Amino acid sequence: MDWITFLNVMIEDEKAAVNKYRLALEEADSKPLRTALERLMHEEEFHVDFLEGEIQKLKAS
Q1: Can you give the residue range of the structural domain that contains 9?
Q2: Rounded CA gap, 47 and 43, in Å?
Q3: What domain count does the chain have?
Q4: How many CB atoms within 10 Å of residue 37?
Q5: Distance (Å, rounded) from C-alpha 37 to C-alpha 27?
Q6: How many Å apart are CA 19 and CA 24, to the nearest integer?
Q7: What is residue 55's predicted lDDT score, i.e. its pLDDT?
Q8: What is the pLDDT of residues 25-59, one digit of tens each?
Q9: How far is CA 25 from CA 12, 35, 51, 54, 57, in A?
Q10: 56 — phi, psi (to 5°)?
């Protein structure tokens, strides 16, 4: 497996985590829990952006 394919697989994993946190947010019944889940979801979104940037760097080199 080449690195771009590997990173794309990782992106899909991160997107799945975002969706899991989004689903959990729908069920969260307290403000502190929603805050924590939102933070975790945003971290996973950051990971997606970061990995997409790394793919662009690899393609450019």
Answers
A1: 3-60
A2: 6
A3: 1
A4: 19
A5: 11
A6: 9
A7: 98
A8: 999 999 999 999 999 999 999 999 999 999 999 99
A9: 20, 9, 24, 29, 34
A10: -60, -40
Q: What is the pTM of this model?
A: 0.91
Other CB atoms within a 10 A radius of the CB of residue 51 amount to: 19
Structure-token pair, residue 17: 């985590």
Contact criterion met (CB below 8 Å) for 35 and 8: no
- Three-state SS sequence of the chain: CCHHHHHHHHHHHHHHHHHHHHHHHHHCCCHHHHHHHHHHHHHHHHHHHHHHHHHHHHHHC
Burial 4-15 (b: 16+ CB within 10 A, else e): eeebeebbeebe
